[in-house]
Write a structure and sequence with these properties.
Layout (H helix, E strand, L loop, with lengths): L1 E6 L19 H16 L6 E5 L2 H10 L8 E5 L7 H9 L7 E6 L3 H9 E4 L1 H9 L6 E6 L12 E7 L1 H6 L4
Parallel strand pairs: 1-4, 2-3, 2-4, 5-7
Antiparallel strand pairs: 1-6, 6-7
Length: 175
């Protein structure tokens, strides 16, 4: 099983009277989401199912990255992903059907950062150290698990396969 956690791309600051749910992406956020989509396509990181927070910025992140995948991906927009914590994220992942081999969740910090750190037991040490520090906007974490039953997902059961950000891709010259 492969779980991909993607924090939404850079969002606008909340305006007076605006609800947080209504914040859209900045120009940089739109570009970063496309960069992550291209990276996912190049590395064949195509989900069977994408579960996206109901917030505007997460939906826009999905809309910007999805065309690069060149595949029809089932998607659902989930209110429970908006500002949920680690337990809520794990609960949603555990609800995935066994036919879903690769699950993409698009949501928010601090829950996504905390969930990634909780789930990972092994993988590239340098990438794990970078992830321990921060999960920035448009940060993508790819975690592989043994088994075929999402209901058995548990803390420290995964291996970090990829941790990339638009900045790390630019620094490596891979944008």
């Amino acid at each position: 099983m492969r779980l991909m956690l993607l924090r939404h791309a850079k969002a606008e600051k909340v305006e007076p009277g605006q609800r947080d749910l209504e914040r859209g992406l900045t120009a940089r956020g739109r570009a970063d989401a496309q960069t992550i989509g291209a990276y996912m396509a190049r590395h064949k990181l195509v989900p069977d199912l994408a579960v996206v927070s109901s917030a505007r910025r997460t939906r826009e992140t999905w809309d910007r990255l999805q065309p690069a995948l060149a595949a029809k991906v089932a998607v659902s927009f989930e209110e429970r992903l908006y500002n949920t914590g680690t337990e809520g994220i794990l609960t949603l992942a555990k609800e995935a059907k066994s036919s879903v081999r690769t699950l993409l969740l698009i949501g928010h910090n601090p829950g996504f950062h905390d969930a990634a750190r909780l789930l990972i037991a092994s993988g590239d040490v340098e990438a794990r150290e970078r992830l321990n520090e921060n999960l920035p906007t448009a940060g993508l974490v790819v975690i592989d698990f043994a088994g075929k039953d999402w209901r058995k997902l548990h803390p420290h059961g995964g291996r970090l396969e990829h941790f990339v950000t638009p900045r790390s891709l630019a620094e490596a010259g891979r944008v």
